[in-house]
Design goal:
This protein has 14 helices and 16 strands. It is an alpha/beta fold. The structure holds pyridoxal-5'-phosphate. Pfam families: Aminotran_1_2 (PF00155).
């Protein structure tokens, strides 16, 4: 039996010159203590011993996903978001990342779709998903736009869309042959409205309305990564180990869009809507389950289920979908999240915020401790720091690795690759508090404080070390 409390984390005490063990504040994974292995064991046993579950579970599944999971999801989500349950709005996916790829495959066109617009700083692993569908920053088809205290800067986005529309003129014909069950959108907008990765910002209600209106005006599809909606907690300086109840998230963009009915860009006989909610069990049960859902207008959910690879291979995650169905029925997912996941994240968040104040406050480094300013609620996995006096985030991150065996993410990772016009983050850092246990989160910030202090004291001096090029790919550091 391993004695390492965090067995996914390499412990390299001997190999680092500082003699300290590795602390990894890049990795955006749940720590092993948050994985729902015990619950999955029970539901797997049930699923694999009952032929009425395992026969469909082990076969090719229906295109929109395992029926009982869709039923459970529509009920569960209707309670969470206070909307009417509608199973036709649900399509089971292989998690949020796979789902973005399928949405882009089905609902965008390499010629007709002018650009994908992403909030910068962006969830950097979404970048390659857009590139796979031909949206490159270097070609002006993956475009970053800014955010402020309230979320995406919708006015800036509209200005930029208008400029693009004027430059490009009339509609180009589509390169793809339009399928009746799909619709090709002219723009895509990608956002993480609740506790964004990496900035932690939660989009205000008025901004949500404004974004939906803009999407409807310019024939855009909003892909809304709602992956942190259920991971919110009250901000407190004295967190306990008691369960942390669910906090109702702000309305999803799809739920603001749907009641507005068909837009002028919808075809005569169909309502595809202008927003898709992209959900996942990765952060609730464990990323390895590779199961998520889309909730959208029924026509869009169905169109997504008609992705070629889904029609051939069946819905993704069919067997795991059958297991998760048991966990939703028994309310075990909710219990796990409220008794384990949210309390642990709430405590780690409180400790990281306190440590940042005590270790970094003296250098004028502050942290946003709430999703919406004044809302009293925090969530997600990350905090976003701005360094003082233009200090380089890249240098801090390299020196942290060299001198303290600490891994943090520099702001440049969250820029939109190849889009020279979009916001830059040379003086930012993202710290993740989901992977390391509480004590190591605090120790990590302490080490960061030492790095910043040394950099302040000997300005300009730079020691080249073995990790000097910032490329950590060979060092067993994987991250999200
Ligand atoms: C905003 C965002 N979207 C998607 C993902 C990945 O989701 P999934 O595991 O469901 O593919 C992450 C994981 O860090 C994320 O932060």
């Amino acid at each position: 039996m391993s004695t390492n409390p965090n067995p996914g984390n390499p412990v390299d005490t001997g190999s680092h010159p500082s003699g300290q063990k590795l602390i990894n504040l890049i990795r955006g994974w749940p720590s092993p203590s948050l994985l729902a292995a015990d619950l999955l064991l029970q539901s797997a046993t049930t699923a694999l011993t009952d032929p009425s579950i395992y026969v469909p579970g082990l076969q090719y599944g229906p295109d929109p996903g395992y029926g009982p999971l869709r039923e459970q999801l529509s009920q569960w989500l209707s309670e969470k978001y206070a909307v009417k349950p509608d199973v036709e709005r649900i399509c089971v996916t292989g998690g949020a990342s796979q789902s973005i790829a399928c949405i882009l495959q089905g609902f965008t066109d390499p010629v007709y779709t002018r650009a994908a617009w992403v909030v910068a700083p962006m969830y950097f692993l979404a970048g390659p998903i857009f590139e796979d569908s031909g949206f490159y920053g270097t070609d002006g088809r993956l475009r970053g736009f800014g955010e402020d205290e309230e979320g995406p800067d919708v006015k800036e986005l509209e200005r930029e869309i208008q400029k693009m529309e004027q430059q490009k003129g009339a509609d180009e014909p589509t390169f793809k042959h339009p399928a009746p069950q799909r619709k090709i959108y002219r723009h895509v907008i990608y956002v993480v409205p609740t506790c964004a990765n990496p900035s932690g910002v939660t989009m205000s209600l008025s901004r949500r309305h404004a974004l939906v209106n803009l999407a409807r005006k310019y024939n855009a599809l909003i892909i809304s990564d709602d992956v942190y909606d259920f991971l919110q907690w009250p901000v407190t300086t004295t967190p306990s180990t008691s369960p942390v109840p669910f906090i109702k998230p702000l309305p999803r963009l799809t739920d603001l869009d749907l009641p507005l009915g068909r837009s002028s860009h919808d075809p005569q006989d169909k309502h595809f809507g202008h927003a898709v909610s992209n959900g996942t069990f990765s952060k609730l049960i464990g990323p390895g389950v590779r199961t998520g859902w889309v909730e959208a207008a029924p026509n869009l959910a169905y169109g997504l289920s008609q992705t070629g690879s889904t029609r051939s291979g069946g819905a993704p995650s069919q067997l795991v979908a059958a297991m998760i169905t048991q966990l939703l029925k028994s309310h075990d997912v909710d219990t796990h999240v409220s008794t384990k996941v949210r309390p642990a994240l709430q405590r780690r968040h409180a400790r990281i915020v306190q440590s940042i104040e005590s270790e970094l406050g003296q250098f004028s480094i502050s942290v946003r401790s709430e999703g919406e300013i004044g809302g009293g609620v925090a969530g997600g996995y990350f905090v976003w720091l701005t360094l003082p006096d233009g200090m380089s985030g890249k240098e801090v991150s390299e020196r942290a690795r060299e001198e303290e065996n600490l891994v943090v993410a520099e702001g440049e990772m969250f820029e939109v690759r190849g889009d020279e016009r979009s916001p830059r983050f040379p003086s930012n850092l993202r710290l993740c508090f989901s992977w390391e246990e509480e004590g190591d989160v605090v120790e990590g910030v302490r080490r960061l404080g030492r790095v910043v202090k040394r950099m302040k004291e000997n300005k300009g001096e730079r020691r080249e070390g073995r990790f000097g090029n910032g490329d950590m790919s060979g060092n067993d550091i994987s991250y999200k």
